[in-house]
Amino acid sequence: MDSKNIIIIGSGSAALCAGIASLEKGASVIMLEKADEHEFGGNSRYTAGAMRFAYNSFDDLKPLLLNPNDERLAISDFGSYTKEKFLADLKYFNQEVEITDLQQYLVDESLPTLQWLGSHNIKFAPIYSRQTFIKDGKYIFWGGLSLEAEGEGDGLVQAELAEFLRIGGTIKYNCDVQELLTENGKITGVKFLENGEEKTLNSNAVIVACGGFEANKELRIKHLGEVWAKARVRGTRHNMGKGLEMATAVGAALNGNFEGCHATPMDFNMPEYGNLDIPFIERKHYRKISYLFGVMLNAKGERFVDEGLDFRNYTYAQFGAAVLNQPDNLAWQIFDSKVDKLLYSEYKTHDASFVEADTLEELVTKLHGVNPQQALATLQDYNASIDTETPFDPTIKDGKATKGLPLNKTNWANILDTPPFKAYPVTGGITFTYGGVKVNTSAEVLDEKGNAIAGLFACGEMVGGVFFYGYPGGSGLTSGAVFGRSAGYSAAEYLG
Predict the structure, then answer these.
(1) Is the pLDDT of residue 350 over 90?
(2) Taking a C-beta distance cutoff of 8 angstroms, is the pair 202, 10 a contact?
(3) pLDDT by residue (tens digit) across 211-258?
(4) Which of 46, 117, 365, 443 gives 235 a disulfide partner, CB atoms 3.0 to 4.6 angstroms apart?
(5) Phi, psi of 147 (to 5 degrees)
(6) 9-18 per-position pLDDT tens digit
(7) Helices 475-495 and 101-119, interaxial angle, to 10°?
(8) What pLDDT digit, counting tens, does each position of 377-396 carry?
(9) Any bridge partners for residue 171, and if so which?
(10) In this model, does residue 283 exceed pLDDT 70?
(11) How many CB atoms lie within 10 A of CB 87?
(12) Do residues 4 and 196 touch, judged by C-beta distance below 8 A?
């Protein structure tokens, strides 16, 4: 390969966005993917494909839609999601950290990046199934999240790959990059194993887009703590932290919160990793994130989070950690039949784990690993504490709360009184890690002195300093696309 061409390591959405952007600027691009063709696409293929971005009205959304003539649009209220609101949502999860340059760039470039994807044959659909409730005959979108890629995460990656190949990109599978090559402080290529055979590829520009370290049990223990050895990995088994290792070996500085991660409640009986062999529409089905319409009990039979703290977009990426830290890394999500229609489709798949009973007294005896006496007392106290005057309204934070409990539920507190009752066992799952390499808004990788490492760029989960102590749902794919596009443009510009 000519040294004036660009190498991209990884093949998820961020990598493909980087590839499309590089090709758009006239560069030649080769993508090296560790997995085989069946497993390409990184974590992106396991997502629901939702992308969070700032918009002022439906006028910003309509040009992005695959089907702008959908009859439901006439009775849909998308509201708005301003830059100010997006920044406020990020700041909420920063704790003491002020909004960073990377976060500001993410917000500012979110809508332009979605529009750019649209110009490259990537289309979107309103998230009617998971982000709306019907109220007064209208579909009300909630939580600042309105559109998903057609075909969810799998459809997003497949469409991006098709575009990457259409405009001249090349992808090679079974290529496990081992080392970044440098000379006089500048990137000169990579060393990799192709089907076990050691090879070298020359290039003056490399974009590292091969994910975080969530699939590496040893690194999870090192950075997140011992309990994370027990976490289920929601996505790919290939994100072992190799990109971070290679980048730091050539002087990259680290950035962000290495003790933080996107962690979701998952089916307790799921396999250790996600599964690409099931249809894409079911790949998210191990997640169990409708807890806000019920209660969660730990092995002691006690509640341990405010299930109604906020819309699930703002809590699900944190509550997985809360579950994982319970005794036996276990919790049970309990619902009555009043809310059955509100539960996401993953609660209704053929292999979803649950128990069922006609009374709470019977249900608690079926909760494996749970103190039944305390569980029943907790549920009875919960029922007795609910404000019955405030109406239940899933389209807003309705303030229908409990009163007088050691841990109150602040919204969507319904009495559990309508059989059959169902309980779903969950544990903590990890989606991606927050710590990464330090980059600027041009996606150039920086050294400890803040200088750009010539020819080295990063995007996707490799980037640290975008998320710290939490995550508003849908921001991850958007961040990958924003910094992927930036990396592709910057690498092409660097090569001239």
Answers:
(1) no
(2) no
(3) 999 999 999 999 999 999 999 998 899 999 999 999 999 999 999 999
(4) 46
(5) -125, 150
(6) 999 999 999 9
(7) 80
(8) 999 999 999 999 999 999 99
(9) 31
(10) no
(11) 17
(12) no
Residues 6+ away with beta carbon under 8 Å from 437: 208, 244, 247, 248, 252, 253, 254, 255, 445, 446, 458, 462, 463, 464
Q: How many CB atoms lie within 10 A of CB 162?
A: 14
Q: Is 58 helix (H, G, I), strand (E, B) or coil?
A: helix
CA distance 486 to 443: 6
Global pTM value = 0.93
In 3D, which of 387, 421, 439, 119 has the Cα closest to residue 252? 439
Beta-strand ranges (E) seen in 304-417 are 331-335, 355-357
491 sits in the region (left: phi over 0; alpha: psi -120 to 50; else beta) called: alpha
CA distance 111 to 432: 23
Instruction: Provide φ and ψ at 181, rounded to 5°.
Output: -95, 140
* The residue type at 114: L
Residue with tokens 């958007």: 478
Both tokens of 311, joined, read 């819309």
Sorted by where each starts, the structural domains of the chain and their CATH numbers stand as: 6-212+434-495 (3.50.50.60), 262-429 (3.90.700.10)
